[in-house]
Amino acid sequence: MCLACPCRVPVVRLSCRAPQILSLGCGGMGHAVSRTMRANSFHYRNDATMPVLVLTLVLVIAVSAGLIVYGRRRGPSLDGETAWRWARRLRVMRGPGGTAPAGPTRDTVLVMPDISGYTRFLHLSRFAEAHAQHIVTELLQAMIAGAAPTLTAAKVEGDAVLLYAPLDGPSARTPAEVAQAVDALIRAFYARLEALERSNLCRCDCCRHIGDLDIKAVVHRGPVTAYRLGRFTELSGMPVIVTHRLLKNSARTPRYVLVTHAARALAPGIGGEQQETVERCADVGEVACTRYPFERAEVLPQTADGARRLRDTLSKLATNLRALWSSGG
């Protein structure tokens, strides 16, 4: 309080440190300090940081409550496709090297047909190697076209191609559709093989043995994640590894479809006697499968016409010219 006059008015000075009592009288100076005290107190209470902090706290509480309510209503879906979409929008799941998810993990069927007999063509001559590549390209294109639109080609790996189809989600395929697509790609392979053999006019070692080519296919099923690596879309997951491992199996027949028990409902309609087998895969273990061997008579080859024969001949001539040009360069 003021110690210099009878009014005993308390005088306080506000600062960024602790308040201090002023021993000043009211004779003009004391009341002036009192007015200054009230002005500083009003400025302190209206500091701009306090409303911002309060508003931020209110927003955080409101958003948290909304997410809790939304999660209870939607259940596990918040951790699935919804979470993936939010993560992609916020770009928080982009990894090193430009990788990013192309979709959530889905139950997916994997089909991998492999052309057998291709490797021995490569060491014959440079013409034979070029013709072998032409033949394999034609056969791969026929299989991809035959499996479409149910199965989508993910990657071509030499004389094999990895195809896939989701079994859940907005673009899901039914087991019946997948089985028909597997049947169609096998028939498309042998139809194109028969057409190439009938229209062949080349007598090189490769073209004379077109009829020796066959196909084996692996069908598997499991959770697969698609991700983007630059401009490419790749598939990731243990089912992808198992599918590749199963291409090396104990089969002794040249033509078959190997279906894992996980994909048993997706077996194609071709094949004679079913053969139960357990395949041992490196770093994976034992995989129970059913093998469906088949004969060429079960497929429906088409007869090549004159236009197809001319087109194939011109294509092989163009391949020869490219091989000569490459060797000359």
Fold and architecture overview:
It holds the Pfam family DUF2652. Keywords: Membrane, Transmembrane, Transmembrane helix. This is DUF2652 domain-containing protein. By secondary structure, the chain is α+β, with helices and mostly antiparallel strands. It has two domains: 12-45, no CATH class; 106-328, Alpha-Beta Plaits. Helix content is 40%, strand content 22%. It is built from seven helices and eleven strands. It has helices at 26-45, 49-74, 81-90, 126-147, 175-198, 238-245, 306-328; strands at 12-13, 20-21, 99-101, 106-116, 152-157, 160-166, 214-229, 232-236, 256-260, 275-281, 285-293. The strands form two sheets. Strands 3, 4, 5, 6, 7, 8, 9, 10 and 11 form a nine-stranded mixed β-sheet that branches. It has a two-stranded antiparallel sheet with strand order 1-2. Strand 5 and strand 6 (160-166) form a beta hairpin. Helix 4 packs antiparallel against helix 5.
> What is the level 1 CATH name of the largest domain?
Alpha Beta
Succession of helices and strands:
EEHHHEEHEEHEEHEEEH
Distance between the termini: 104 Å
Described by strand count, sense and barrel closure, the largest sheet is: 9 strands, mixed
Number of domains: 2
CATH topology of the largest domain: Alpha-Beta Plaits
How much of the polypeptide forms β-strand, as a percent range? 15-25%
Shape: elongated
Organism: Rhodovibrio salinarum
Transmembrane segments: 48-70
Pfam family, one: DUF2652
Protein name: DUF2652 domain-containing protein
